[in-house]
Amino acid sequence: MQMTQALEQGFCDYLGWLRTRRSVRRFTPQPVSEALLRTVLETATWAPSAHNRQPWRFAAAHSAAARANLAHAMAEDFRRDLLADGLPVDEVEAQTARSISRITNAPAAVLLCLDVEQEDRYPDPRRQQAERLMGVQGVALAGAYLLLAAHAAGLAGVWMCAPLFAPQSAQRTLNLPHAWVPQALVLLGYPAAAPAARPRRPIDEVTLIL
Ligand SMILES: Cc1cc2nc3c(=O)[nH]c(=O)nc-3n(C[C@H](O)[C@H](O)[C@H](O)COP(=O)(O)O)c2cc1C
After folding, report:
1. How many domains does the chain have?
2. Which of 1, 137, 170, 191 lies 20 to 30 A from 88 at CA?
3. pTM of the model
């Protein structure tokens, strides 16, 4: 049976539900309880990881102060990069202000980190690099689980890549252990609106069946 037929006939509710997750960037002011946040994070830890090493670490910026500190610290790096790119100052200020307000207006934010102390050590850079990549892949899977767990809990979120461009500022501001290398920030909250689905490339364009 074709998947589309199966979906239409209601045989694949879960597969259909997976397709309803959206990246949500605007939230209602309703807070996310710490208990719910913990449940979502705990669910994220059921993601697979290489050797079951579970290299993800979560720095949950649950307080408004933590989110504001993080947003402003990362914005400094963002501003520096945009100015170095030669953007006009007012454009730089508009973009950094937008970045700050997105983070400070989210009811919760989780900084996804990779604990590099979980890595196996190799004598050669080729395998060490593969090991690093394996860890990053594990953290990304935990992030995907986190977004889906949030969706299942009636929350919504969006993955932001900003910490990749400001890892040291994010780490320093939240006073994280040195081995926690920031990978991404997931904003979470109750959706202010249901965004339309963004298009997907046709499966035949992205698949080779060999
Ligand atoms: C690795 C990664 C980085 C992303 N970075 C950002 C980001 O910095 N800002 C943002 O608004 N959305 C970001 N997104 C969200 C994507 O824009 C979004 O997933 C995509 O447009 C598809 O929309 P959907 O998630 O609603 O299906 C990122 C997603 C991923 C997986």
Report:
1. 1
2. 170
3. 0.94
